[in-house]
Amino acid sequence: MTDTPAPRSAAGPEGPTAPVGPGRILLGLNTFGDVGENPDGSPQPHARVLRQLLEEAQLADAVGLHAFGVGEHHRKDYAVSAPEVFLAAAAARTTRIRLGSAVTVLSSDDPIRVFQRFSTVDAISNGRAEVMLGRGSFIESFPLFGLDLADYEILFEEKLELFDKVRAQKPVHWEGRTRPAVSGLSVYPPLERHLLPTWIGVGGTPESVLRCAQYGYPIIFAIIGGQPRAFRPLVDLYREAMAKYGHPMQQVATHSPGHVADTDEQAREELFPHWLKLRNKLGAERGWGPAGRGEFDALCAPEGALYVGSPETVARKIVLLKQNLGVDRFDLKYSNGPLPHSAMMRSIELMGTAVAPRVAELLGT
Asked: Distance between CA 151 and CA 71 in Å, rounded?
């Protein structure tokens, strides 16, 4: 094993992941390529979902949103298993929006290949690529790629360490237990203007927060239940640990599900059946009790983790998030189970044309 990584920012103090200041918050979108349904209730082909996803990324760029991220999964209810391939296609259809993963499951991938694929996307997109690394909330990739779940912790720790060395764009010297050593080899292609902006996605454990701060990477919290304000101690821990390690401060972001429509009632009624279907499906897999309308409505309340409602309602909820946690960026997970493509397109449109300017107005920017 090697020593603690040297302090450095994602792209210098004013780079893509530098904090944006107290009166501003960046707004992005995340999706897993959730598989929708045909009129008869049968699942749509994955290929159609991916083509629709390109339309969604193109619209997000057109309405001026900051970032578009696709999450890696290896199961039939999500269409994205190769984020970088999709992002390269999206790069050819967009001009301004940042393009990233949400997340890349580093534990079951090769860190060198991850860097090479994202550096390629960065070149194609003219410097708009970013990667979010994580362990993922599903385990399907472990048996698929022949990995042992008993190595869950060591795989992520060693692969993150190797990725960090590759990302530095210097000859790589590394050795560990989970793959052969690398002795002074260089990795290509390098990025043109900066180091690859790299986030760590965390679910809410202090250990994950401290690991992120050790490397000096920006952090994104997945807040999918409860109340976002409960994450304040973890946000504070990250900032304290970044200072302790001597790293320049990076952006703090959160990711939460939601849906925007013209009215609160429309947004809730459009989303609820699809949220419930997805929630209870995952709940059955993970041993949770069944959910109902009461849980949904509680999560849609001002202090809840679902960002559902009219542009005014969602904007005020994002401003409350900024006030409670001081975050620099909020990513809306706008796809929710088999929510129709048309509803998601409208949600994206409203995020860019109504929510974003209202958030800026409320924050006085």
From this structure: 22
E strand or H helix at 130, and its extent? Answer: strand 129-134
Local confidence pLDDT in tens for the 365 residues of the chain: 344 444 344 444 467 999 998 899 999 999 999 999 998 999 999 999 999 999 999 999 999 999 999 999 999 999 999 999 999 999 999 999 999 999 999 999 999 999 999 999 999 999 999 999 999 778 999 999 999 999 999 999 999 999 999 999 999 999 999 999 999 999 999 999 899 999 999 998 999 999 999 999 999 999 999 999 999 999 999 999 999 999 999 999 999 999 999 999 999 999 999 999 999 988 888 888 899 999 999 999 999 999 999 999 999 999 999 999 999 999 999 999 999 999 999 999 999 999 999 999 999 97
> Could you tell me if 53 and 86 are in contact, meaning their C-beta atoms sit under 8 angstroms apart?
yes
DSSP output for 303-331: TSS-EEE-HHHHHHHHHHHHHHH--SEEE
In the three-class reduction of DSSP (H, G, I as helix; E, B as strand; rest coil), residue 61 is classed as: helix
Alpha helices in 9-110 (DSSP H): 46-62, 83-93
Query: How is 174-233 classified by DSSP, letter by letter?
Result: E--SSS--EEEE--SSPPSSSPPPEEEEE-S-HHHHHHHHHHT--EEEE--SS-GGGGHH
CB 300 within 8 A of CB 265: no
- The region, left, alpha or beta by phi > 0 then psi within -120 to 50, assigned to residue 146 is left
One-letter amino acid identity for 316? R
